[in-house]
Amino acid sequence: MLVVEDDTFIRKILRHSLEKDFTVTTLGNGIEAMTWLEEGHTADIMITDLQMPFLNGQELIQTIRSSSLFGHLPIIVVSNHDDSTMRITCLEIGADDYIVKPFNPLEVRAKIMAVMRRSEQRNSGASSLTTAVDDPVI
């Protein structure tokens, strides 16, 4: 799991509440996150803030979604922005879910599990569809 958040306190809360279930890597901005991914590290899911220096959360989502290597990575936004326009924008550019700060760490964990379940179902559904199409009919 990759947590991209410039607020040290929020990073610590997320790490502490999620590390018993996940291997958590925390980074402070989108540039660090892209560098980490490009160095060959992998994550099952990414949680990102929106307001960060250098490469903000929206730019990070767009960069990830346009990548052939990382485009499949599930993304959850955790942000102070509470307006529906921002939530809709983030979902439209590729976020899988959106959580408003302050948040309940148990809710964050539940949403992570739900997004990961959907992602696994999508991936297994795609592979079984490919298998069915590729199998010769005898």
> What do we call the CATH topology?
Rossmann fold
Radius of gyration: 16 Å
Q: List SSEs in N-to-C order.
A: EHEHEHEHEH
Chain oligomer state? single chain
Low-confidence stretches: 127-138
User: Would you identify the CATH architecture?
Assistant: 3-Layer(aba) Sandwich
End-to-end distance, in Å? 44 Å
- Give the overall silhouette: globular
Largest sheet: 5 strands, parallel
Rounded average pLDDT: 90
Q: CATH superfamily membership, which one? A: Response regulator
Tally of contiguous helical segments: 5
Using the coordinates above, name the CATH class.
Alpha Beta
> What is the percentage of strand-forming residues?
5-15%
What's a quick, concise take on this entry?
The protein is α/β, with parallel strands linked by helices and 138 residues long. It has a single domain, classed as Response regulator (Rossmann fold, 3-Layer(aba) Sandwich).
Annotation keywords:
single chain, alpha/beta, 5 helices, 5 strands
How would you describe this structure to a colleague?
The structure is a single chain. With 138 residues, the protein is an alpha/beta fold. The chain has five helices and five strands; from the N terminus they run βαβαβαβαβα. The protein has a single domain, classed as Response regulator (Rossmann fold, 3-Layer(aba) Sandwich). The protein has helices at residues 8-18, 30-38, 57-65, 84-93, 105-134; strands at 2-4, 25-27, 46-48, 75-79, 97-100. Strands 2-1-3-4-5 form a five-stranded parallel beta sheet, sandwiched between helices. Strand 3 (46-48), helix 3 and strand 4 (75-79) form a beta-alpha-beta unit. Helix 2 (30-38) packs parallel to helix 3 (57-65).
